[in-house]
Write a structure and sequence with these properties.
five-stranded parallel β-sheet, Rossmann fold, 5 strands, 266 residues, 54% helix, alpha/beta, 2 domains, 13 helices
Length: 266
Amino acid sequence: MIALEQARQYLEQLGLAQAAAVLDSRLEAAAQKQAPYADLLADLLGAEAAARRARYLTTRTRLAHLPFQRTLAQFDFAFQPSVDERQVRELATMAFVADAANVLLLGPPGVGKTHLAVALGLQAIEHGHGVYFARAHDLMEDLRRAQAEHRLDRRLRVYLAPKVLIIDEFGVWPYDRSAATALFTLISARYERGSVILTSNKGFAEWGEVLGDPVVATAILDRLLHHSHVLNIRGESYRLREKKRAGFFGTPPTPPARPNRPDGRD
């Protein structure tokens, strides 16, 4: 028993908290199976490695500021046949991150753009990449304010640090020229250094109007599209589908027939 307690203390001193916590149960299991010492050691170290990875993934996911957690397994490809499932599965290998390429998800509201962006973000975390999620309006307002306060370079570090930056809902609101130029600064700084996953309900031809400056819009698109994968999603809104299932968009009831007037007229 003294040796057991000493072993537990050594594990704790070495920072192997999970191995120390499961030491008793793993020793008992090894004794019942008459497992070799090497198997017991591998079992203890495996438990520690699994616990550390779980903590790593939890921390990375929290730091990513994702609005929710949805995986590719939860995406209904049958409901959105315009989405090339094979292309999405290829993106999930994270080869585009290794190439510092971008993913642009275009389509009307509710078709699953943010779901796919978040799912790819979770895959990137699984592969050991840093991820950061920001709504386009919040990001551009943050950059515009930092630029006005002469601290843009410092603020850009937040958006340059992650290997994958997710910009969601671009085009929902119009932006002024200062916000547009700040976004151009960010996209230029990330160009061929890190990946951007961007969702938008606007086609590329409309970006000049959204940004209030066609020249800046062209410059941003030039960098985003140079190394990119574009997915155009055309289909029904998931949210509307759920409303229909709940009966909110059912066939309106037929109004009752009005009785004829005594004089025979309607």
